[in-house]
Amino acid sequence: MKHPKEFFRHPRPIVRFPSGQDSAEVMELIDECETSKYAALSRNILQKDLLSETSVVAELDGQIVGWMAAYKLPHDLETLFVWQLIVSEDERGLGLGSLMINSALNRDICEGVERVQTAIEADDGDTWRFFKRFAHSKNTDLNVETDYTHSLYKSKLDTSECIVTVPLPVT
Predict the structure, then answer these.
(1) pTM value?
(2) Where are the alpha helices (DSSP H) in 1-150?
(3) Quick count: other Cβ atoms within 10 Å of Cβ 78?
């Protein structure tokens, strides 16, 4: 993790709504940062502007350096589910992930959202550390459901995931 002073020395990215025109650049970022089993779905989300009201891109000097795909759960509109959160290697540790989540939470569509939720693979240490820091920034703890598995996804039947919830402070 970078020193907190680095955050202030570094240019601040612009966070904004994604558009279909961001598709190619976001896909490059996804390919750069991870092997995404959901790459085709990410492309469809971008090209069709699906989830654009709750998703975020972060841009720095005209380059996309962050992407968050999120949506309000249809059966629980008080929950923002973060489906994908990707930050370029050079921008990690500078608070960009939190900036993107908070940007979405500050939008009118997220009025009334009381918690942020995601699914994290049991062995994904970086993502666990990020969401623990995010929960700490909200003065709360993670709530973890460990019985969730990828049983719905034929490609990863052996991988276990946890549903992680960060309750948001009442304002």
Answers:
(1) 0.76
(2) 4-9, 23-33, 39-47, 96-105, 125-137
(3) 12
